[in-house]
User: What shape does this take?
Amino acid sequence: MTIDQYLEQLRHAVRSLPADDAAQAVAYYDEYLHDASDPNATMAGLGTPKEVAAEILADYVGKTDSKPRIGVLWAVVLGIFAAPVAAPLAVGLFAGVMGLVIGALAILLALFVTAVSLVCGGLWMVVTGALVVTQSLTTFAWYVGGGLVLVAVGLLATFGMVQVGRLAIRGLARWVSSIIDRIRGRRSTSQKGQAS
Assistant: This one.
């Protein structure tokens, strides 16, 4: 990350301070980083811009001669409480989304198995009807007719479920691909910043 990128992120993170105080804080770190013999090592020693901003906000609130605005207090309080809560929330959200995806795929699989079972049951009825043709013509007609109806409904349902399954898998693949592209984009952006 370059000094300018670092300072821009810091400027964004302290935007809840009064404009003069925010500008003064950013100017201090601007001078500090430009005077450093190894700016990258200095930035690493300071921590992320968000960590530096949290210290600046805490110092600002701790000053006895200043009356912080409610926005600054909320920013400090939320910064303190968000750190231990954000990671479990992200994990929980991810688990919830994955649960929904797995549940939807399980429902699709169950419907597909049901459609295939209809075809198998219909074929069994046709075979059973063929076996009783000599005993009763009515039973034969009922079994064969019902079996053919089940086979037709099962084949239509199977075809429909295959199409829905393809759409679901394509959608899931696009979704995962977009997530991977976002992660790669962030990594390449941070790597370009570090290389500069």
